[in-house]
Amino acid sequence: MFMFARSSRNLIFYGLLFLAVMIALDLKWQPRVIESDALNYTAMGYNWAKFGVFSSDINADSTPEPSFKREPGYGVFAALTTFYVLPGALEKSFTCYHSLENPCYEYIRALERWQNVLIALTALLSAMVVFHFTGHYGWATLPAVLYVANIYLWDITVPGMTEPLAILLTLAASIFYYQAFQKKSITYGLIAGITLSMLALTKAVFGYFVYPGALILLIGVLLYKHYRQAILVTVAFIIGFSALTGLWMHRNETMFGSQALAQRDTSTLLIRVQYNKMSWDEYWTAYLYWTPFVKNLVVQYVDEKNWKNLDRKNPQGYLQQVEKIMKQSYGYIEDRAEREKARQQFKQELIKSFVQDWPKHMATTLAFSWRGLFSDYTNIVTWPLMLVGLFLILRQRQYHFLMFFVLAAYCFSVHAVFTHNIPRYNKPIGPMLAITSAIVLHRLTQKESQGKGEKKA
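and the corresponding structure tokens:
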């Protein structure tokens, strides 16, 4: 069980750690505007705060049409920390937030600082977990060092991106899920479900976890022969998840005739279908093309026809064709309900294509699994340490610890199987890798020191 000690010494350590991470992130700041996918996420918050409507319309001068292209979680965060509370934030047109000519640096900076708070809280929570298992402040600092190193190498503090919120919620949900199992606690089951719902409303792909998550939780508790608690904890988990997501799904059902958390699932599946068209030459090249530090060598020395379609910026590549295909399939249907019906039908066709060509799909899943390994540069070290940690868990038969990794395993697997698994998709599992690395290194150094002690004796 995670028992977070509250001694004055620990509180001072955690406070200094939080402050150090915030300072390190602040030193990296540079003026920039909200762009790319971040525009839609932030627009959800801006339009909700200004017009009372959840919409990802980035050009709304008046009340925009409701939408659920994106999840509302980050939008709510942006509204409550920036748009609602900062004077003048809503007086600016949203164009100000994504215009290079007239950027709203003051408000964007405020939003970035709140994102930094999320990252610092993740480092803090990770340190608490590591300290619980090691009792060592040095090892508890390691996850924070890895986070800051990754941010300096590969930025995730871009304003308006959901990763900082999703990473914190993934870690919190994993801890509460583990606590629900370990303590057979209805309260923790409920909290785990609520935290998962907040994560699903930030990253819709996590919404599907409620099904395997509930089943694994039920079986896990049943194995300890706590039959009544198994049912109660699992029901609490499902109720907690349904509380928030149910409201959003009801809204989408009423407005669009769909209970989906977001519409992005269709475009995500289509992207994967496009990549499944890879030739075998492209397939083998992809392993090198998606390996850090090797891509430039591939571009320089490998025949262009073997990697050009993998280039995300290539207008004729697999990715850039998606928007055009979607418009041709259902994008021109004006009626909102009919358009959603056509989208759902198109989505089913995409899923069927996976089944019909399952050998190729399984092969590309291996390639995208490889791609997913490199969500952070430090993964070159943390993934091997994670495997050592899993080996130690199995060797020592401490199987209950596996429950802490269930959500992370789901995250990695579902993105490898159904998406094009770009690096940021697996950012949420970073804390589990960092925590496990710190604990494993501590265990290994302990054994080494014990071995030296025995030799001297």
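(Above: one complete record from the training split.) The CA atoms of residues 388 and 440 lie 7 Å apart.
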